[in-house]
Structures are given as structure tokens and as C-alpha cells.
Amino acid sequence: MGDSATLASAARSATYNMILQMVFRVLTFLLNAFVLRYISKEMLGVVNVRLTLLYSTTLFIAREAFRRACLSKTADRKWRQVINLLWCTVLLGLLCGIALAYFWLKVLEHPNPDSIPNYSIGVITFTVSAVLELLAEPLFVVGQALLFVKLRVVVEGVAILSRCLVTVALVVFFPHWGIVAFCCSQLVFTAVYIALYYAYFIKYVYNSKDKSFPLKSVRDFFPKRSPGQNWTNLALAKLTWSFFKQGFFKQILTEGEKYVMTFFSVVNFADQGLYDIIANLGSLAARFIFLPIEESGYLFFAQSLSRGVPIKQQPKESVALATQVLENLLKFVFLIGLTILIFGYPYSYLLLDLYGGTILTSGTGPVLLKSYCVYVLLIAINGTLEAYVFAAMSSNDVDRYNHKLLVFSILFLFFSWLFTKIIGVLGFIVANCINMIVRIIYSCLFVHNYYKESDRNPLRCLIPSTLVLLTFGVSLVITIISEKMFCCDQGIMLKFVHVCIGGVCCLAVAFAVYFSEYDMIEFIMQQFVSKRKTTKVTKKD
Fold it and tell me: Are 159 and 24 in contact (CB under 8 A)?
């Protein structure tokens, strides 16, 4: 498959994944707003922080390294060996899940059983859910690697919708169930997720005429030995081990604040619930864009670049296209992140007031959300940079980065604990920002050295034009003044005036971007909108 075809499919994948992330965030947003009226903030903290952390940690440790390694471009990829390796995720997930569940039950402090009963059932259920979900991991990787771009959106979208509907129904009609209601909805999600993946590929194997598809029967979904071949590829296993070490530290950096909350009990469950609400609100308008771009960007870069090979020894067309994609994606995500920061600051209080009323605006909620907007901008830059860096690194580079991640992780956990002791929950956001800045600096140094023998440097395209920056600055001043004059305790009409002023400023920014960043706009439109002939080559619906 050519690089242009890969880029077109990756672009479609990013588009569909953006839709998925948007649906997920909106559903979570509405679900939290709804269930807040039926459950306590303490319950939300236990479920969304304590139990969800157990679930996400088990999955991340068990599968993230396998995903990155098995999606990398290799000249001798044999799918039989890849499938065999991917089934190791189930065993690893089982061992990891048992160890974590024991720690959650025997070491960590339990919530008050009078207000939050059945905590043990919740721990066991979320652990089982994570292990069972790994049964579909080989099919997930096959779908991603062979660019079944709509499959993930449909499967995860239907599973998420099922979980949301079951949660709402059980919380409304059986409010006394407490954690058990969330356990039932989590098991429904897992069952739907596994069933849809297996149903799709079983149908595809028996009905499709695609002779290039590596799985010829249902038996091929499962591990088995092929004559004349090793059980798995040793080089791929080594790469997986490198990513495993890296993923362990990256998970600490990604979910560090939740680990500090869980292990050190620096804030109570109610404050944990508040922080989780703020985090969902803060990332609602950003994560559904940045995360799909990072995942699809890594998929494209990993398929286009030869891992660990100097840039001058790689095909010029592949390098030129990868560089162009990185340049435009960096500027695109930077502009979106900057928009969220500039307009998020003067509209945080209004958003919290509309979402949860005084329960969110009376305390530290507005300050947390404004600070989170800074973190979102850093997430935007870091995600795209790391997608490129991880695709270009050799196994030795990954190992060296793992050593640095160990230092980053220790410092991050220390600063999270320290800042939380000093300034409360806001300390988590400050520590996260410091963590992102350090990782961005490291990625920039890697990209700079990677291109030192080339006449191009994609980092130069990160900063937008002077006109765009000036428009952002003027918009920030105007909207801050508008917030002081019209928001948020002077009636609905003045709130509406404040929103209209922000809308006008946002339009001004859009026009400035359109007229001064036309090359980026044209490139993005070509990849995400145009009906290119290359998309037909890889279309698998």
C-alpha cells in the first residue's frame, strides 16, 4: 500500500475516531450531569476515579505495548506470529488484574460502607471486565493495521451507548443498587464490545472475497503454531518489551493524579468526583480531536517511516509526505488548543454554572477549569509530537526514552503530591502541565536531531502567523471584559450577550486563520474532505 493511500485511510480513520471521541465525551458529559441528580459526588469519585483507574491500568499495561509494536511497519510481518503474540495480552491482563485487584481490596482504604456499599463487588467486576475485553485485542489490531476505518467507531460507539443507557436506567429505577448499577453497565459494555468484533470478522471471513486478508477461518483468530516458523517473531517481541517498559511509565504520567488520589488519599472521594467532572468538562471540546489525531497520526507515521533508519536512508517521497503531515498537524492542533485556552478562560464559570449550578461554581471549580485549559493546549502539542517520535524511534531509542520516563514519572508523582498538599486539587493540574512541558521539550529535541541532516524542520511551522496571534490576543481582552460586565449573576439575557460576544470573537479568529494559514487549511481539506481516488484502494466497510 502506498504512502498516499495510507495517509488517506489514516485521515478517514481520524475523522471517524473524532466522531467516536465526540460521542463518548458528550455522552459522558450528559451522563454525569444526569446521574449527579441521583447519586453523590462520593459515589462518582469511587466509580470514575478508583474503579475506572483499576480498569484502565489493567488494560493499558496488558495491551498498549502490543498495539504499538504490532502496528509498526516491518518488512517481514507474518500475521500468524503477530496473532500469537497478541494473545499474550490475555495472560498478562489476567496476572495484572489479579495483582491490582488484590491491592485495591487489601491495601487501599475502602470507602464508607454505609454510604457506598458493595465496593468489593465493584473491584472484582471492573477487573473481570478488563480481562475479558482483551479477548478481542487480536481482532482490534488486525482491523487497525488493515485500515478497517469504520469498524472501531461502530463497535466502540455501540458499546458506549449501551453502557450509558444501562447506567441511566439502573440509576433511575434502582438507585439503591449503588455501585452494582455501574458494575452491570460495565459488563454490558464488555459483552457488546467482544460480540461485535467477533461477529464482524466471522462474517467477513466467510463472506468476503478478499484473498489478501490474513485470517482465512475462525481458527486463525486464535493462537497456533505454523510449520517452519517460530511461535512468534523475536524482534517484534523485543520491540513489545521496549514499549511495555515505556508504557508502564507513560501510564503513570497520564493518570498520575488519579494514582496520587488513590494511593496517598490526599483528597477525599467528593473532591475526586469534582476533579473528575472538571477533567471531563475541560477535555470535552479537545480530546475528541487530539486523541484520534494522535492515534491515526502514529498509524500513518509508523507505516511510512522505517523505524531507527536515518532520514537520508529512507525514501524521499515517504519522508517528504511524513514531514508535510507533521507540519500541518502540529499547527492544526496548536490552533485548536489555543482557541480552547483563549475562550475557555472567560467562559469557564458560565459553563460550570449551566452544567452543575452552585455545586460546581461555589468552590474551586472555575479556577480548576481555567487551569485545565492550559493543560489542554499542552496535550495538543505533545500528542502529535510523540506520535511522530515513537514511530521514528529505534528499539534502542525507545529503551533510552524509558530511562528518562522513569525520572519523569518519579518527579511527576512527587510534584503532584507536593503541590496538592500546598494548593489542593489545583496541584494536580500544575504537575500535569510541568510533565507535559518536559515531554514536549524532549520530543522537540528528538525531532530537531532527526532532521539535522535535512533542509527541513517541521518545528518551525508550529507557531501561527502574527495576524492570528494578534486576533487571539484581542479576543482574550474583549471576552474577559465581557465576563466582568455581563456574567454570570445578572440574568439570562446578559449571559446571552456574553455568549454572543464570544461568538463574534471566535468568527474573527476563524477568518484570520483562513486568510493567513491557507496552506494548512488546503492540506487538511484535501485529506479529510476530498474524494480522492486513493481512498477507494483501501476502502473496507
Answer: no
For 466, other C-beta atoms within 10 Å of its C-beta total 10
The rounded distance, in Å, linking the Cα atoms of 354 and 315 is 53
**What's the chain's Rg over C-alpha atoms?**
24
Label residue 12 by pLDDT band (50, 70, 90): low
Other residues' Cβ atoms within 10 Å of the Cβ of residue 470: 11
Number of neighbouring beta carbons within 10 Å of residue 128 = 18
pTM score of the predicted model: 0.72
Per-residue pLDDT band at 119 (split at 50, 70, 90): very high
Q: How many CB atoms lie within 10 A of CB 437?
A: 13
Read off the pLDDT of residues 307-316 as tens digits, 9 standing for 90 and up: 777 878 888 8
Contact between 16 and 153 under an 8 Å Cβ cutoff? The reply is yes
Contact in structure between 331 and 520 (CB atoms under 8 Å): yes
Q: Are 516 and 467 in contact (CB under 8 A)?
A: yes
Count of C-beta atoms within a 10 Å radius of residue 281: 25
Terminal-to-terminal C-alpha distance of the chain = 17
Pairwise CA distance, residues 86 & 242, whole Å: 15
Could you check whether the bond before residue 488 is cis, i.e. omega within 30 degrees of 0? yes
* DSSP calls for 417-465: HHHHHHHTTHHHHHHHHHHHHHHHHHHHHHHHHHTTTSS--GGGGSS--
Q: What is the pLDDT of residues 234-245, one digit of tens each?
A: 888 888 887 887
118: cell is 458493595
Tell me the three state secondary structure of residue 238.
helix
Write out pLDDT tens, residues 46-96.
998 999 999 999 999 888 888 888 876 554 567 888 888 899 999 999 999
Torsion sign across C-alpha atoms 377, 383, 388, 394: positive
Residue of 231, 438, 462, 220 lying closest to 334 (CA atoms): 462
- Which pLDDT band, with edges at 50, 70 and 90, does 529 fall under? low
Q: What sign results for the dihedral spanned by CA atoms 282, 283, 284, 289?
A: positive
Query: Locate cell 526514552: which residue?
Result: 401
Between CA 334 and CA 380 the distance in angstroms is: 6
**Rounded distance between C-alpha atoms, residue 540 and residue 536, angstroms:** 9
Closest Cα to residue 319, out of 463, 145, 457, 446?
A: 457
Are residues 65 and 288 in contact, defined by beta-carbon separation less than 8 angstroms? no
> Phi, psi at residue 315, to the nearest 5°?
-55, 130
